[in-house]
Design a protein that fits this description.
- The protein is an alpha/beta fold and 238 residues long.
- It has a domain of 150 residues: Dihydrofolate Reductase, subunit A.
- It is 22% helix and 26% strand.
- The protein has five helices and eleven strands.
- The chain has a nine-stranded mixed sheet with strand order 6-5-4-3-7-1-8-11-10, sandwiched between helices.
- Strand 3, helix 3 and strand 4 form a beta-alpha-beta unit.
- The two termini are 34 Å apart.
Length: 238
C-alpha cells in the first residue's frame, strides 16, 4: 500500500484524544464471510499483507483483546513481531479459566497481561486477574472497557474471535471496524459475525466504509461505526 492511503487508514486511531477509549475491531474473512473452515482451520486466511496490517494495528494500540476461544484455537502471541513498534498489553476474556497456563500470550516479555476470569488458580504472578469478585459485571463489554481504561489502556483492539467481536459491536462499543476480505471462497465454515437479529433492512448498520487494496489482492474495508453512509452520526452507547 502507498504511504498516503496508509496515513488515512490509521489516522482516526492516531488522532484519538484519550479522553475516552477508542475501540477498533478487526475481522479477517473469505469473500463469502467465513473466518474458518468447519474444522476450525483459519491460519493466514488473509495472507501476509493482512497479517502485517494486523500487527500494525497492535503496534498502535495500548491493549489487544481476544476471547479464550481464539487462545484455544490458535495460541496467538499477540505481539508486533512483523512490524516496528512496541507490543501492546495482552488481554484475554476467559470466564471459566480454560486457557492453558503455558499459552504463548502468558509469556513474560515485559508486556502487561490481563485475564478477565472467575478462576483464580494457576495464573502467573505478574498476570492481573479481573473477575466479578473484584469488579461486578466486568464481563459486560462496557464495564470491561472501563476496567481497561482505568488501567491506562485507552486505544484498544478487539482482535477476535467472531463471538467476541460480535458482542462488542452489539454493545455499541466499537468505533472502527476493519474487515479484511481474502480473494477465496470457502463455501462453508464459521461466520465472521453473529450479531443480534433484525427484522428490517432499515435496522441494519450502514457505516461509512472506505476500501484499501492490499499488496496480495486482499481488500481491507475501514468501517466507521460512528456514522452511516449518509454522514449521519450514530449514537454512542457509552
Amino acid at each position: 500500500m502507498l504511504a498516503d492511503p496508509l496515513t488515512a487508514l490509521y489516522e482516526p486511531l492516531l488522532r484519538s484524544s484519550g479522553s475516552r477509549p477508542f475501540i477498533i475491531a478487526q475481522i479477517g474473512q473469505s469473500l463469502d464471510g467465513r473466518i474458518a473452515t468447519p474444522t476450525g482451520k483459519s491460519r493466514y486466511i488473509n495472507g501476509f499483507a493482512g497479517l502485517d496490517h494486523l500487527h500494525r494495528l497492535r503496534a498502535l494500540v495500548d491493549a489487544v483483546v481476544v476471547g479464550v476461544g481464539t487462545v484455544m484455537a490458535d495460541d496467538p502471541q499477540l505481539t508486533t513481531r512483523r512490524v516496528e513498534g512496541r507490543s501492546p498489553a495482552r488481554v484475554v476474556i476467559d470466564r471459566s479459566g480454560r486457557s492453558s497456563r503455558e499459552a504463548k500470550w502468558l509469556r513474560q516479555d515485559g508486556c502487561g497481561r490481563i485475564v478477565f476470569s472467575e478462576d483464580p488458580e494457576g495464573w502467573p504472578d505478574a498476570v492481573e486477574r479481573i473477575g466479578t469478585d473484584i469488579e461486578p459485571d466486568v464481563f459486560d463489554p462496557a464495564r470491561l472497557i472501563e476496567a481497561l481504561a482505568i488501567r491506562g489502556h485507552h486505544r484498544i483492539l478487539i482482535e477476535g474471535g467472531a463471538a467476541t467481536v460480535s458482542r462488542f459491536i452489539d454493545a455499541g462499543m466499537v468505533d472502527r471496524l476493519h474487515i479484511c476480505l481474502s480473494p477465496m471462497i470457502l463455501g462453508s465454515g464459521r461466520a465472521a459475525l453473529d450479531l443480534r437479529p433484525i427484522d428490517n433492512l432499515c435496522d441494519a448498520l450502514h457505516p461509512h466504509a472506505r476500501p484499501y487494496l492490499l499488496d496480495d489482492g486482499n481488500v481491507l474495508y475501514d468501517c466507521d461505526l460512528r456514522s452511516d453512509a449518509g454522514g449521519e452520526p450514530h449514537g454512542d452507547a457509552r
